[in-house]
Each structure stands twice: as structure tokens, then as C-alpha cells.
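It is worth pausing here to work through a concrete case rather than discussing structure prediction in the abstract. The textbook approach is simple: state the sequence, then state the predicted structure, then interpret. We follow exactly that order.
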Amino acid sequence: MQARRSLTAANLAWLAPFALVCLLAMASLRAHAVDPQVNVIVLDNAEVTSGASELFPVDQPGKPIKLPDEWSESRPREDGPVWYRLRFDAPGTADQLLAAYIERVCGNADVRLNGFIVYTGGRMSEPVTRNCFYPQLIPLPSGLLRAEGNTLDIKVQGYPLQKVSSRQRAGALSQVQIGPHALLAEQHASEMFWSISLLQAITIATTVLGAFLLFLGWINRQEAHLTYFGLVILTWNALTARTWLRDLPVDNGTAELLVCVGFAVLTALVVQFLLSYGALRSRVIEASLLAQCLVVPMTLVLAGPQRLFTVSSAWYLLMSFEVVLMFALYLYTDWHNRRANFWPMAIMLSVLGGLVVVERAVQYHWLPLPTVHLLHFALPVMLIVIGSRQLKSFGLALQAAEAARNSLESRVAAATAEMERNYVQMAELRVEQVTEKERKRIAGDLHDDLGAKLLTIVHTSESERISTLAREALEEMRLSVRGLTGKPLPVADALADWRAETVSRLGQAGVEVDWRSPTEDITQQLSARAFVQTTRILREAVSNVIKHSGASHCKVRCSLGQQDFVLVVQDNGRGIPMELDGKLDRGHGMASMKHRAKQMQGQCLVESGPGYGTVIRLTLPLGTA
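Step two, the predicted structure:
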């Protein structure tokens, strides 16, 4: 029997939505490109000054600045409005209507051409219109244009980084393109599709799915995970609606506070869904989630608007950790019970974890603002995949119940027909006595055979009970799996298994293996837990050699002492770059190996350097392993 489930074609199908998201992102990036042969000029130099006046404050000295200007970097603690003055000569297209295209302005902008207002994006006072995700296309009247020396004054009303909970909603102005209106209109329409229209379509689709799951959960109270997941979808859609809702009825501080509280509620619903879907229950966790939903707004109010970004970022980091931790607990339960959902959910956890890491890196200025907010696209796709899986499971449960009912009816009909035939045959031979005897016989058959099956159907007519039956069957399978039986394993057998797997994997990757382990009689025993954890650490080490080291040779040394077991994996690869010195435990693989060793009161040390290769030394105490 297999110790792990392999990726089936059905599981691989779960990867299709993520490939689709990547293709959409690539297409979106290509859509932003402008043909360098057309007559479009890009304005990336401006004079900037602050002021709430109706016109550019010429009495205040303007400071030259390079566009795009992200307030999160240039003025993280300064409020708007901010004036930008851009100078340009009209392109040589006198017979065409010209336009200015602003890919991103956050939150709102008024535009003046040579002192005359030509565009206003909405309210410039609280509540300010939020156009952060809307590209702006501004026609430039030919009567106001000059052949040379035009000035384009842009008044931006936005918020500093400290007063918002996300870097994407801090004040900003992108480069400005001046060119033919027809050409820039195509670019504007393309950007509107990728940034707004597509997101709205996804929101509508997921809202329908979430409402349907909520309805199914309402009429099937024992399927609580359907209710929680429907609420997860609807809550996420409510939070992302701020992307395309420009005019909110509340001021910035209230809107940002509601968003932070919404993410606390979303985290609680995700955790509750995973607990319910994994057939787990913890009143401590439920109470903690409720308390968190109450503490989040309190801390934000006490911190004040000037510390909103700092406090909300800390909460978002904690909430992300909570969700990842619950995903890990759910996956552990799936692995333990050999459920078919393990690999698909593990893949989605990896993708979600990567997206969260990228999002946090963007918020802390470790990465630049991406052109496409992938989390807004990838997460709804994952919600659709998981929701579809919920509907499929629910449908299969109904189908199984219907099949069981039909089978019972056919068996009862067959038994009834048999009774009728026997009754006719024995009608003349002591009808009452023979009939009574035959009834007892059939009743016994029904009790021993159909009765047992009927009892099983009764207990499995609801999805939760069907799951219980499946878990019992899987429990029998689990007894035959050596690593999960809980019985101690001879160290010699473990070494043999590890050597066979390691030599096979490295050999297939073209890496020469030098394995040395004790050859004398070994009497020590290894617990099932230590065997499983050590196997995972060794597999991770071998995977690093194959994927990252570029090594041609790998040495593996095993030694046994009276109290300790030592396993050393050394390669002759390129080693870990100097820029990662002191950060070796930040990777998921390294951290996982060290965490597993620590769980067994051992340690996992990593030594590396450019040209030196990498050495992973695992030490486990046999007494506690």
C-alpha cells in the first residue's frame, strides 16, 4: 500500500485556476504597454507643492519630483491635497483630439490645463471619492492647447500611509501620458477591464455561489461548514467591494476601521470553516476569535488615525498566521485520516501562503506595488474551487443516500416477493405454522443482513455520518500503514528504507550518492513519530539538494550513540548565497526541518557558504524520539 497519496488527474485539475490567474496577470501586464512608434509622450517630471487652493499655488516654491510618486515613500505622514505641475509641448497631431491618461491616482484628482479645469474625479472633501483602482482618461480641448509650453496642474486629494490600512490606498500619482484620445481610450478600456470589470464579474459569480452555499447550510444544519464557507465568500466580496466602489458614505477613518474589523470577521469565519470541515471543535478557539473581533476595533481606536497602518499591519500579520496555522492543523487531520482532500488543499495553502507573503512584502516596501493585485483575483478563484468541491461532496452524499434507499427498496421488494411465493407454495400444508416459520426465517435474514445495512444507512443518511463511516474504513487501512501504526520500528529497518529512497531520488536526479551507516547489529528502536518526522526532514534535505544546490555529489552519514542518533547530509553544490547569510531559517523548507527536529527535542543545524556546499546535521535523542 502507498504511504502517501499520489497526485491524481482530478487533483491536478485543481491547478488549472491558478494557471489561469497567471495567464490573466501576464495578459494584463502586456495590455499596459504602449506602442513606442505612436505619437505619445510620457510625463514623468513634475513640480510638487502642497496647498488647498483652487489653483496651483505659484507663490510657493515647487519641488521637482520624479513620477510615479507614491506618498507611502515620499510623504508617509503628510496629508493632502498635493499639487503637481507638469509641462509639455503638444504632440504633432493637430487633427486629432488629445487626451491625458493617468494610470493611477489615489484617492481623487482635479485636472487643469493651462489654468482651466478640464476634469474632476469627484468629491475632494470628506468623504473623498476613492479612484485608487480606476485609471483616468482626460480629454484635452484643442482650444486650450498651445503648441509649446502647456502646463497640466493635477490636484490630488489622498491620505498618508499612516492613515490607511493598505499601501495600495495611500496617496499616489503615476506617470501621465499625453497622446491621441482614440489610442489612449483603448488602453484605458483595457485597464478598466482588468482592474474593475473582471473583478466585478468575479464578485457577482462568487456572491451567487456564496448565497447558494449559505442556503444549503441553512436547510442542512448538520453541514455547518457550508454555512461558514458561504459567509467567508460573502464577507470577502464585501471587503473587496471597496476596490470598485468609489463614493463611500463614510469618511476615510471609519472606512478603514470597518475594513480592519471585516478582516477580523473573515479570519474568524475561515478558522470556523476549517474546524467544521475537518470535524474539529474547540471552544477556546471560538472564544478567542470572538474576543479578537472585539479587540481589533478597540486597539485601532486607541492607537488613533496616525498609527492606523502600523496597528492594522500587525493585526493582518497575526490573522494571516492564524489562518495558516489552522490550514496546517486541517491538513494534518486530513493526512492522519487519509482523506482525498489533502493534496488539493495543500496546493492551495502553498499558493495562498505565497500570495500572503507577497502582499505583506508589498505593504512593508520590500517589493514595489504590483500592476495587478493578484490576491483580488487568485483568492476568489480558490474560493470558487473550494465551493465547487463543497457542492460536489454534498451532491455525492445525496446520491449515496438515494442509492442506498433504492437498494433497500429493491431488497425489501425481493424479500416480499419471496415471502409471497413461499406462502402460495405452502398454502395447503399447515398454512399458519409454515408461514410463521418462514416469516421467522426471513425476519432473521432481514435482521442479520438487511437490518445491519439499514442501520448503517440510517447512520449515514446525513453527510456527517457518511464521513464517520468513511473514517472507520480508513482507520482499518491505516493499521496496515507501517509509519502510522504507532509501533516502534527497528533503526536498521528505518535506515534501509531511508537509504533506498535517498539513493533512488538522487540517482534519478544525476547526483552521485555516498551513503554510510552502521553495519554492525543495531538493537535500538525508533518510534513511529520519530520515523515519520525524520523521513520528512531527510526528504526535504534531499529535495533541496536536487532543486537548489546544483550538486553532483552528496554524502549521507548516519551514526548511533547511546543516547543520540545523528544524520548528516552534505553536498558539493553552490551553497547558499552570502546575501542570505543569517536568514537560512526564513525559507519554509529550512524552518520546517528545524521545527520538526525541535518537536522531538533535537536540533537541525545548517552550514553553508558559496562554493562550500551545504551541510544539514540532524541530531535526535533516542530516548525521547
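Step three, interpretation. Residues 1-18, 26-37, 442-455, 470-480 have pLDDT under 50 and may be disordered. The domain at 41-189 is CATH 2.60.120.260 (Jelly Rolls).
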